[in-house]
Amino acid sequence: QVQLVESGGGLVQAGSSLRLSCAGSGRTFSALRMGWFRQAPGKEREFVASTWRGYRTYADSVKGRFTISRDNTEKMVYLHMNSLKPEDTAVYYCAAGETGTFDYWGQGTQVTVSS
């Protein structure tokens, strides 16, 4: 079983930066596929970024602005968000999986970007 707890959300102005953190526990963290997703009001949850086995992938909408990183020793995953836009406003979720799917989810943290 894997537990995930996000933190770092808040209200910021457009153009600002924010770093989200996800604390993991349980299974062998370094082997897990880790990702960030987000869900805006009235929209479906969407993929933001993931990291696994040294590879990082990003949604086109955040490429060049967001960076995902992990610290396996501390069992932490981060999402560094730069040049934030109002359309980045959403609840951001940390997710983990042992294979190609994400099986474990955090409770989410709200990010609000004002124009």
Query: Largest sheet, if any?
Result: 7 strands, mixed
Task: Specify the overall morphology.
Answer: globular
Order of helices and strands: EEEEEEEEEEE
Q: In percent, how much strand structure appears in the residues?
A: over 45%
Number of strands: 11
CA radius of gyration: 13 Å
Catalogue the unreliable spans: none
Structural category is mainly beta
Which secondary structure elements does this structure contain, and how are they paired or packed?
Elements: E1 2-7, E2 10-13, E3 18-26, E4 33-39, E5 46-52, E6 55-58, E7 66-71, E8 76-81, E9 90-97, E10 104-105, E11 109-114
Parallel strand pairs: 2-11
Antiparallel strand pairs: 1-3, 3-8, 4-5, 4-9, 5-6, 7-8, 9-10, 9-11
Kindly describe this structure:
With 115 residues, the chain is an all-beta fold. It contains no helices and eleven strands. Strands 2, 4, 5, 6, 9, 10 and 11 form a seven-stranded mixed sheet that branches. The chain has a four-stranded antiparallel sheet with strand order 1-3-8-7, with no helix packed on it. The mean pLDDT is 95.
